[in-house]
Design a protein that fits this description.
heterodimer, A: alpha/beta, 9-stranded mixed sheet, 5-stranded parallel sheet, 22 strands, 37% helix, B: alpha/beta, 10-stranded parallel sheet, 24 strands, 22% strand, globular
C-alpha cells in the first residue's frame, strides 16, 4: 500500500494540490480532502468501463484493432483531409497540448479547445479590454468583497470557496467568512446564492445592462440609471456600487452565466471595464471560473506556440485566428472541415445538434480513456491513460498558476502525448511516401 | 568530436581587447579552442565583422509576455520590421511564426538568432509562476536562457528585513532562487507591488510599505547585502521606484547612491539599474517634462559601483509589461488602453498594457532621446547595457535600427528633424556628437554582459568561451558606420552566420538548424542551520497564506532538460 501526499486533483480548474491518495495493488482505494467530483475521478475511475482497445469502425461497428492499425488509419484520415478540426485537449497535460498543436501545424488543421463552448468569450473580452486579475491566494489573503457572477462553485468547483474564496482565511482576512461580504449575481437562487450575504437576481440575459448600470453609478453618472435595470431596482444598484467602492479588495468570479449568455464577450468586456473603474476607488480584480482542469493551460500553451489562445487555423500555413469563423462550432455548423480529431473533451455531449450532425458525416478520430457520446460518432478510437492519475504532466489552475500533476498508478494505456507523437511520425512517413 | 574553423574573421572582442583584427577562430565540441585538426570544417568569413553571440541581459521573453500575446491578437500580423516580424508559415526547419512585440516562442528564438544573439535573460520571474517561465524557455529554440527572480515585494523578504534576520533572509533568497531556478535577484519598484495589493503605491525610497514597516531603501540595501553574502554571479537588478513619472531622476540617483559603499563579493558592479530611460525624467508634470539623462549620466560617470541598461524607446507600437503593477494601471488610464494585471500572492504584482510611441508626441519624442542621451553621455561603455527592455520600449527586432542611432549623428539628426519643436527644447540629444564605434557597440551588446552576469564563457571569443558567434555581412575596414547606417542596420538585422555552441544555426539570414538551448540557474549554498530556521517560518507561510503546497511549489527538474547549474558558496 502506498500513500501519496500533495497529489493534484485533475478534475476542475481549482486544481487542488493537497490531496492524499491511497494506492493498493495499483488501485486507488482512498482519497482524502477531495470533493465529491474529485473523489469520483480518483476512486470512481475503477468503477467505469474503460475503452480497452484501439478501435476502427468497420461496417458501422467499432471493432478492436491493433494500435498500429489504428495509428495507420488515423494518419491516413489526417493526410487525406483538406482541413481537419482538432478539438478538445483540455483534460490533458500541457505537454500533450503542445504536441497536438504541432500535429495541427504539420497537417494544416484547425485546432480549438473547449473554450469554444465555455470561456472563449472571456478571451475575446481580454482582447478588447484586458484582464485585470490576481492569483487565488491574493483573494484568499485580501478580499473583503467577492462577487460570484453567473457561476455556482457550490456545485462546479466545490472546494473553491473553502480553499480560495468565501470561507478561506488569509493574512488580512483572519476571520475568513466573517471578514468577507459575499455577493451572488445570477438568474436563479443557486446553492452558492443561498450561502451569500446578498443575492442579486437578474433577468435572464441582462448581465450587460447591470454591469453598465454599475459602471454608471461608480463613475458618478447616477442620473442616467433608470428605475429598474436587469430586474434590479436603481436603489439596489446604487447600494451595490457603494459596497464595491468602499471595499478594500473586491474579486469578481465569473462563470458561463456571464460568458455564454446574451451579449457574450461584451459581458466580460463590461466586467473588465468595471474592474478598471473600481480601481479608481479601491482595489478590484476578476477571475474566470474555468471548468476543465487544464483549459487554462490550453490557452497558455496555444498562446506561446501560435500567438492565439484558441480557434487557430493552420490551413494557410501560418496561424490564422478569427473566432466566429475559426471556432470549432463555426466550422462544424458551416461544414467547413472534412475530418476531426477529438481528445480530452466530449464534443458529442456538449456541442449543438447541427455540429453533431455534421460530425456524424465526417471521419472522426477520438483519443480518450472512456467511451462517451463522442465515441458513437468516431471512426478511429484510441484508449488513453488518465492524465493526472496514470500520467504526469503540467496543468494550469484557473488563475494561471501551473502545477505538475503526479502519476499515481501504473497503466497499460499510452498517454495522449505518446499517441499524438506516434500520429505525427506516421503522418510524416505517409507524406514522405506521397 | 565536431571541429570548425572560421577563417578570415575580422574579430571585435572587447573582453580580449581585440578591436577588429583579422584572425581565425577554432572551435571544438562547442567551445573555442587554440587550434583544430586539418579535418575541421571550414567557414570563410571573408573579412566580415565577427563578434561573440549577443547577450540580451534584460528582455521579456517568457512568462508575462504570454499575457501580452493573449490580449493582443493584432500584434501577431504586424510586419513593422520585414523579415523579423509578422506571420511566417512553418518550413522543414522552423515552426510557424507570428508577432512583432509579442512573437510566439519559436519566433523569439529564430529572430534573436538572426540578429546574432545567442543568450537572453528574462527580466522577471515570480517564484510561484516560475514553472510557466521555464515551460516557455523550453519552447524558445536555439538560445541559452536565464531569468531573474522577483524579491522586491515578497512578504518573507520584507519580514526578515523588518525583523533584522539577515541570515534567514539569505537562506530564503537562496531557496527562492532554487525554487524558481533563477539566476539573480530582481527588485521591481521595491515595496510597490505589495502596496498595489491595496491599489496603492509607494512614493519613494523612504515611504514605508503598508503593513510591513519597511521602506524601499531598506529593501534595496538588505537585498544587495544578501546578494553579496550569497556571492551571486550577478548583482541586484533594480527597477527603481517612481518609474515613468516626471522628476523621477532624483529617485533614481538616490537609489544608486544607496549602495556606493557596498562591498561586493566579486569583481563586478554592486548594482545594475535597469531600463533607466523610464527613470531619467526631469520636470514636475507632463507639461514641463524634460530629459533628466544628463543628471543621471553625471552621477553614473562619477560612480564606479553600478551598471545600467537603456530601455531605449523605438517609435511605433510596443507592449509594456512589468511587475510594477501600479505603473501599468496608471498607463492604462492615461492612455485609455486595455489593461491586464496579475497580482501574485505573497510575492509581487504585474501588469501589461499596449502603447504606441509616436514621434509626433512630445513626451514620446523626449523619451526616445533620453535613452540615447544616457548611452552617449555616460563615458564608459562597460557601464552601459544596450536594451529596449523588449518589448516595453519596443521589440528587440528593432535593435539594429537603434544601433544606428548610437553610431551615427547623421542618422540621429534625420530623426530629430521629424520631432516636434516643443520636444527639442526638452532634450539634449541635438547637441551630442558622440558616435559609438563597433568596439563600443560590442561592449554594450555582449562584452559587458559577460562581466555583469559573471558569465565567463559568454560574450567573448577567447579560448574556453562557448562557441556562440555572430558573423555580420559588414567589412569593418571598408565601411564608415557613421554615414553608412543603412548598411549597418541591414548587416545587424540578419547575420551571415550565427553559430551557437559550435553549430551553424543561421546562414545567410536563414535558420539552418534549431538545437535546444540551455537554462542557467544559480544554486546558492547557505549553512543548513540557516535554511532549517528559515523553513520554520516559510512552512507557516505555506500553511496559512499560499494556495499551493510547498511540495508542489518548487520547479521540478523536468522543466530544465538542459540545465546549467552555477553553484555559489555563501561568504
Amino acid at each position: 500500500m502506498a500513500v501519496i501526499t500533495d497529489a493534484i486533483c485533475s478534475l476542475c480548474g481549482s486544481l487542488c494540490d493537497d490531496i492524499t491518495v491511497t494506492v493498493e495493488d495499483n488501485v486507488i482505494t482512498d482519497v482524502e480532502r477531495a470533493c465529491i467530483l474529485g473523489r469520483n475521478k480518483f476512486v470512481g475511475m475503477f468503477l467505469h468501463d474503460r475503452i480497452e482497445s484501439p478501435m476502427i469502425r468497420k461496417n458501422g461497428e467499432l471493432v478492436d484493432v491493433s494500435y498500429e492499425e489504428a495509428i495507420d488509419e488515423a494518419a491516413k484520415i489526417l493526410v487525406n483531409s483538406k482541413r481537419t478540426l482538432s478539438y478538445g485537449w483540455c483534460s490533458t497535460s500541457c505537454e500533450a497540448i503542445s504536441k497536438a498543436i504541432q500535429l495541427a501545424e504539420e497537417t494544416g488543421s484547425l485546432i480549438d479547445s473547449t473554450a469554444n463552448v465555455c470561456h472563449g468569450p472571456s478571451a475575446l473580452a481580454v482582447q478588447e479590454k484586458g484582464g485585470p486579475s490576481a492569483t487565488l491566494g491574493v483573494v484568499k489573503n485580501r478580499a473583503d468583497v467577492m462577487i460570484f457572477w453567473g457561476c455556482n462553485p457550490a456545485h462546479a468547483h466545490p472546494r473553491h470557496m473553502r480553499r480560495y474564496s468565501s470561507f478561506s482565511k488569509g493574512f488580512f482576512t483572519q476571520k475568513g467568512r466573517k471578514d468577507r461580504k459575499m455577493i451572488v449575481i445570477d438568474v436563479r437562487k443557486t446553492d452558492t446564492a443561498k450561502i451569500a450575504d446578498q443575492y442579486v437576481e437578474i433577468d435572464q440575459g441582462s448581465d450587460y445592462l447591470l454591469v453598465t448600470a454599475l459602471r454608471s453609478a461608480i463613475n458618478g453618472h447616477e442620473d442616467v440609471i433608470p428605475d429598474t435595470v436587469a430586474g434590479v431596482s436603481k436603489e439596489d444598484i446604487l447600494k451595490l456600487a457603494n459596497t464595491l467602492k468602499e471595499a478594500k479588495f473586491t474579486c469578481v468570479f465569473y462563470g458561463m452565466g456571464v460568458t455564454q449568455s446574451r451579449s457574450k464577450y461584451k459581458n466580460g468586456d463590461g466586467v473588465s471595464s468595471l474592474i478598471s473603474d473600481l480601481n479608481q476607488h479601491s482595489k478590484a480584480v476578476m477571475i474566470g471560473m474555468r471548468g476543465h482542469y487544464n483549459v487554462t493551460g490550453y490557452g497558455q500553451v496555444s498562446t506561446w506556440e501560435t500567438g492565439y489562445p484558441m480557434a487557430v487555423d493552420f490551413t494557410r500555413g501560418a496561424p490564422y485566428y478569427n473566432p466566429g469563423e475559426t471556432g470549432a462550432n463555426d466550422v462544424l455548423t458551416r461544414g467547413d472541415v472534412d475530418a476531426a480529431i477529438i481528445s480530452a473533451a466530449d464534443a458529442g455531449a456538449h456541442f449543438p445538434q447541427d455540429s453533431l450532425k455534421y460530425l456524424a458525416k465526417i471521419p472522426v478520430i477520438q483519443i480518450d480513456p472512456y467511451a462517451n457520446p463522442t465515441t458513437e460518432l468516431s471512426d478511429v478510437v484510441f484508449p488513453a491513460a488518465v492524465v493526472g492519475v496514470e500520467a504526469e504532466g503540467t496543468a494550469y489552475r484557473m488563475d494561471g498558476i501551473s502545477l505538475r500533476m503526479k502519476k499515481l498508478i501504473d497503466t497499460k494505456f499510452k498517454t495522449d502525448e505518446e499517441i499524438v507523437v506516434d500520429l505525427i511520425n506516421k503522418v510524416r512517413e505517409l507524406k514522405r511516401g506521397a | 568530436m565536431s571541429e570548425l574553423l572560421i577563417k578570415n574573421a575580422v574579430v571585435c572582442d572587447p573582453i580580449n581587447n581585440i578591436n577588429c583584427v583579422k584572425m581565425d577562430i577554432s572551435i571544438k565540441d562547442g567551445k573555442i579552442v587554440e587550434s583544430v585538426s586539418s579535418g575541421a570544417k571550414v567557414i570563410d568569413a571573408g573579412g566580415k565583422l565577427t563578434m561573440a553571440g549577443g547577450v540580451d541581459g534584460h528582455t521579456h521573453c517568457a512568462g508575462k509576455i504570454n499575457v501580452g500575446r493573449f490580449m493582443s491578437p493584432h500584434d501577431m500580423r504586424m510586419t513593422n520590421v520585414p523579415g523579423l516580424s509578422g506571420k511566417e508559415a512553418p518550413t522543414a526547419t522552423t515552426r510557424a511564426q507570428v508577432g512583432y512585440n509579442t512573437p510566439n516562442a519559436f519566433a523569439i528564438g529564430y529572430r534573436y538568432a538572426k540578429l546574432g544573439y545567442t543568450t537572453i535573460g528574462e527580466a522577471a520571474i515570480p517564484i510561484i509562476g516560475a514553472r510557466h517561465t521555464h515551460e516557455e524557455f523550453e519552447a524558445i529554440p536555439i538560445l541559452d536562457k536565464f531569468g531573474l527572480t522577483l524579491f522586491g515585494s515578497n512578504w518573507q523578504v520584507m519580514e526578515y528585513i523588518r525583523d533584522d534576520e539577515p541570515e534567514k533572509l539569505a537562506a530564503y533568497v537562496a531557496w527562492g532562487l532554487k525554487a524558481s531556478r533563477g539566476y539573480g535577484i530582481k527588485i521591481v519598484n521595491p515595496g510597490g507591488g505589495e502596496a498595489w495589493g491595496w491599489g496603492k503605491n509607494v512614493s519613494g525610497l523612504d515611504d514605508p510599505v503598508p503593513n510591513f514597516d519597511v521602506t524601499p531603501a531598506q529593501i534595496i540595501t538588505a537585498l544587495a547585502e544578501t546578494n553579496e553574502k550569497l556571492n551571486l554571479p550577478h548583482s541586484i537588478h533594480l527597477h527603481c521606484n517612481n518609474l515613468g513619472k516626471p522628476g523621477n531622476y532624483e529617485t533614481t540617483i538616490a537609489s544608486m547612491k544607496l549602495l556606493e559603499n557596498l562591498k561586493t563579493s566579486r569583481d563586478r558592479q554592486a548594482m545594475h539599474v535597469t531600463h533607466v530611460q523610464f527613470n531619467a525624467y526631469a520636470g514636475t508634470s507632463w507639461r514641463d517634462f524634460e530629459s533628466g539623462a544628463p543628471q543621471v549620466a553625471n552621477y553614473v560617470n562619477s560612480a564606479d559601483h553600478l551598471t545600467f541598461d537603456l530601455g531605449q524607446v523605438i517609435f511605433g507600437p510596443a507592449m509594456t509589461m512589468t511587475a510594477d503593477g501600479p505603473v501599468e494601471y496608471a498607463n492604462s488610464r492615461m492612455l485609455h488602453a486595455k489593461w491586464s494585471n496579475m497580482d501574485v500572492e505573497l510575492e509581487d504584482a504585474s501588469g501589461v498594457v499596449p502603447i504606441t510611441y509616436s514621434p509626433k508626441m512630445f513626451v514620446n519624442a523626449v523619451q526616445w532621446a533620453i535613452g540615447l542621451e544616457l548611452a552617449l553621455l555616460v563615458d564608459d561603455p562597460w557601464k552601459v547595457m544596450f536594451t529596449t527592455d523588449s518589448p516595453n520600449g519596443g521589440s528587440f527586432v528593432n535593435y539594429p535600427e537603434a544601433y544606428t542611432y548610437l553610431m551615427s549623428a547623421k542618422r540621429r539628426t534625420e530623426v530629430i528633424e521629424g520631432l516636434p519643436e516643443m520636444a527639442l527644447g526638452r532634450m539634449n540629444l541635438p547637441g551630442i556628437d558622440r558616435e559609438l564605434d563597433l568596439y563600443e557597440l560590442a561592449i554594450m551588446t555582449r562584452a559587458m554582459q559577460s562581466k555583469i552576469y559573471s558569465m565567463d564563457t559568454k560574450g567573448h571569443l577567447g579560448v574556453g568561451a562557448d562557441a556562440d558567434i555572430a558573423i555580420y555581412d559588414l567589412k569593418p575596414d571598408s565601411i564608415d558606420t557613421t554615414v553608412e547606417y543603412a548598411a549597418v542596420k541591414k548587416a545587424f538585422s540578419s547575420t551571415a552566420y550565427t553559430i551557437k555552441g559550435g553549430e551553424v544555426v543561421v546562414k545567410d539570414g536563414e535558420i539552418a538548424m534549431t538545437p535546444e538551448g540551455r537554462t542557467y540557474w544559480v544554486n546558492a549554498k547557505v549553512p543548513q542551520a540557516n535554511t532549517d530556521a528559515m523553513q520554520v517560518d516559510l512552512a507557516q507561510k505555506f500553511k496559512r497564506y499560499y494556495t499551493v503546497n510547498q511540495a508542489n511549489y518548487m520547479v521540478e527538474d523536468a522543466y530544465l532538460p538542459h540545465p546549467v547549474e552555477i553553484t555559489t558558496e555563501a561568504l
